[in-house]
Amino acid sequence: MEIKIQPMGATQTNCYIVTIDNKDLIIDPGINATSWVLNNTTNPIAILNTHGHYDHIWSNAELKERLEIPIYINRDDAFILDKCILGQNPPKSKADILVKGDELLDIHGIKVQYRQFAGHTPGNSIIEIEDVWFSGDFLFQQSIGRWDFPFSSGEAMVKSLEKAMKIKEDFTLYPGHGMSTTLRQEQRGMPIWLNYVKNSL
Fold first, then answer.
1. Is residue 84 helix, strand or coil?
2. pLDDT for the residue 31
3. Which of 80, 127, 119 shows the shortest CA–CA distance to 99?
4. SS3 label, residue 153
5. Taking Cα atoms as reference points, which of 125, 177, 175, 124 lies closest to residue 151?
6. Number of domains in the chain
7. Which CATH number fits the domain that encloses residue 163?
8. Alpha-carbon distance 123 to 24, whole Å?
9. Would you call 121 exposed, middle or buried from its count of C-beta atoms within 10 A (0-12, 13-18, 19+)?
10. Structural domain of residue 16, as residue ranges?
11. Rounded alpha-carbon distances, angstroms, from residue 101 to 105, 122, 159, 160, 182
12. Which of 108, 115, 153, 180 has fewest C-beta within 10 Å?
């Protein structure tokens, strides 16, 4: 597996291109991601969104049209693609595949596991490919996603952190912003974050 990374826009949202068996998966194409994606893919097969916030989906529509490939997103976040909830005005897009919860997908022979960790958004998910988590805005290096946005939920974030704390396997984490880390490393700080979120409710 080859992973290309490029932070996009003022929010420096990480756009990823994952290449396996000469097939390219595009994860979270943010603001002005189209040119970089076109210059760094040879056989794109899908656009995968971790969640629906504007800085992760801005180039969805343009890339879908240019490359004629489907968009995947958790079904609970599909409404955000059509209605920005953070006061921005991204190009509207529509998902072709609505992922249901913790669903295992087969995309052109590549196993892609969505794991839903609601809280930051209703359908916020990580995308698991082999031993890697593309964690979107759920987990960062020594931090977690915000739960004070419209349609965010502190209660859901508590459940998601409790769910993540129970996972025994380790994964390399590539987050929506910032540097890579590992699940095991971030699990060490989860009890602190869990208490912090609970105290905010």
1. coil
2. 97
3. 127
4. coil
5. 124
6. 1
7. 3.60.15.10
8. 24
9. buried
10. 2-200
11. 11, 11, 14, 12, 22
12. 108
